[in-house]
Amino acid sequence: LQEPSLYTIKAVFILDNDGRRLLAKYYDDTFPSMKEQMVFEKNVFNKTSRTESEIAFFGGMTIVYKNSIDLFLYVVGSSYENELMLMSVLTCLFESLNHMLRKNVEKRWLLENMDGAFLVLDEIVDGGVILESDPQQVIQKVNFRADDGGLTEQSVAQVLQSAKEQIKWSLLK
């Protein structure tokens, strides 16, 4: 048996319906080179693209996945990882992207909002550790609202102002 660890996610990636990478983050050195990552992604896509299930076991890893219109979303963990934990990350990623992209989780909208997609992913997983599994919390943290087109000038100004305040108070201490 493996010892319990916070590091539960090995990789998260999104492919288009031809198996080409749109977004990918690897959190350990299982696939250290870009070439190895691309080969792994292609093999996973070939195994999962024509099935209706949501889970696969491939190369000693547990993979949960979901497809939406012309995208395939994957979350990869080790073979002993809890599938429900992996699925909660996948669900949170999909629901957060769904909200951010105004219910248009498809390639064109994802490419136009790639910066937001990386922010969403970074709020959910950091260095392989699951930080958040509630899409509402992720959306709130990333500052996407239904009446708002994403990150606004105001929110950037608020972040800068907050940083200035923190620096000022740290210098005054």
UniProtKB/TrEMBL annotation:
InterPro entries the record matches: AP_mu_sigma_su, Coatomer_zeta, Longin-like_dom_sf
Pfam families hit by this protein: Clat_adaptor_s (PF01217)
Coiled coil location: none
Top-level taxonomic group: Eukaryota
Keywords: Cytoplasm, Cytoplasmic vesicle, ER-Golgi transport, Golgi apparatus, Membrane, Protein transport, Transport
Topology class, membrane: Peripheral membrane protein
Primary localisation category: cytoplasm
GO terms for biological process, alphabetical: protein transport; retrograde vesicle-mediated transport, Golgi to endoplasmic reticulum
SUPFAM superfamilies listed in its UniProt record: SNARE-like
GO cellular component: COPI vesicle coat; Golgi membrane
Keyword Transcription regulation: no
Localization annotation: Cytoplasm; Golgi apparatus membrane; Cytoplasmic vesicle, COPI-coated vesicle membrane
Domain (AP complex mu/sigma subunit): residue spans on this chain: 8-145
Subunit: Oligomeric complex that consists of at least the alpha, beta, beta', gamma, delta, epsilon and zeta subunits.
Record family assignment: Belongs to the adaptor complexes small subunit family.
Function: The coatomer is a cytosolic protein complex that binds to dilysine motifs and reversibly associates with Golgi non-clathrin-coated vesicles, which further mediate biosynthetic protein transport from the ER, via the Golgi up to the trans Golgi network. Coatomer complex is required for budding from Golgi membranes, and is essential for the retrograde Golgi-to-ER transport of dilysine-tagged proteins. The zeta subunit may be involved in regulating the coat assembly and, hence, the rate of biosynthetic protein transport due to its association-dissociation properties with the coatomer complex.
Protein name (record): Coatomer subunit zeta
